[in-house]
Amino acid sequence: MESESNQGVVRKGFSWGLVLGLALLGFSRSVGWALNKGLSFPLLSSYTQSAFVKGTILALEGLIGILVPPLLGYYSDTLKSKHGRRRPFIMIGGLLAGIAAIMIYTAYAMSVPLIGFALTLAFFYLSMHLYTAQFRALMPDTVESGKRGTASGVITLLEWAGNLFLFGLAGYLIAKAVDMTGESEGIKALTQTPYLKIPFLVTAFFLIGAAVFVYLIVREPEAPDIEENESLGEYLWSIVRNRDFLKFYAAQTLWWMSFEFIAVFLYGILAFILYGSATEENIKAVTSLGLYLMALFNVAVLLGALPGGIIYDKLGRRLSIVLGGLIFAIPQIWGWFITTKAQITIALGIAGIGWGILMAASYPVIGDLLTKFEREAFTGRYYGFFEATRSLPVLLAGTIGGAIVDLAGENYRVLFPIGALLVLLALPMVWMMKNLDVEGGKE
Length: 443
Hints:
Layout: H1 16-44, H2 51-58, H3 60-77, H4 87-109, H5 114-129, H6 132-142, H7 148-181, H8 186-191, H9 197-217, H10 232-241, H11 243-264, H12 266-275, H13 280-285, H14 287-314, H15 317-335, H16 341-362, H17 365-372, H18 379-407, H19 415-431
Helix pairs in contact: 1-5, 1-6, 1-7, 1-9, 2-18, 3-5, 3-6, 3-18, 4-5, 4-9, 6-18, 7-14, 7-16, 11-18, 11-19, 14-15, 14-16, 15-16, 15-19
Pfam families: MFS_1
Transmembrane segments: 14-35, 55-76, 88-108, 114-133, 154-175, 195-218, 253-277, 289-312, 319-338, 344-370, 414-433
Domain Major facilitator superfamily (MFS) profile: 252-443
């Protein structure tokens, strides 16, 4: 990496310093999302037992993620600033997200009404999505095609390590709270102790610290001149018009919806399988187990992420994605028949490896397609849409998943086979893509 002028000119290649800087940012963001996944559902259970209400509130993340990243990613592409195109968004978003994490704890501790707690969660989601597209776009901005799989593997590894860190910390604090209070229900014990605020404070520290670090240390490439900048409408139409982009975005929407069915309703699934119903008491009773299983899943993702990136670069783009998808889907088919903790543990472990391969292999696809079509100046807007197709499933999974569970007589187990079906529908779309064989990979 060579630096010229205040902003700096970055030669595309593979810089470990740059990749590790982006990985640190990914780690901090994952700590934030893990805080949401690990504690929001149990805390909301103190307000309501309705799967639909809880799912709808958590689905606000998806609604905001559909709207904000595509818009701000689009405008970041043409931002002319001595601070870069992406870093100003990262700095502002990281600061606000850290503040919002503290606000979530404060709102719960002050026993605000459900609407107030929901609005606080919505502010956190908005803050996180202010710089989602910009974070994603920095990697293809600075790493050349053919080496993006390896970079993606490293970034994905640290992202899911952030999840593991938060889930491990929350599990440890719950264990200490149980010892202190003698309360058998983990989340209930945690809310009775000063330990509840620690995950929120730690999350705020990482979100703010990583944003400041990237802003001060990471150097962006000089903004390219865009001679024929497409309008917002033209940009959205170009995605629909190009079959490869459309196929990939549709496929990603399906496999993320499969993931979110399980992630959003994991506590309900565990309570239903192990206790026969997802009452507030049963959900709180499985909180510690849920955090342990989330940590286990993330360990498995780590095991799949780095080889997944290498497979993408060396053995083929389509093959790596299909392989990861199949490994992720098979345990979900088995999920309909699972009855014990041991079976749940094994299934999530296998699924995690597949998910790690799938995540590492899918991240570089948009950058490689933009390279193929000579549209690399537009990484912000296309990764904004990339993030929207990851957020739409949160919206759909929270609302549709909750409605399905309610219609099925609160049978959370039904989400497993539906999730497997969505993944199996997605994989042929990737296999039929025509322009995934860019330089640096084998097909």
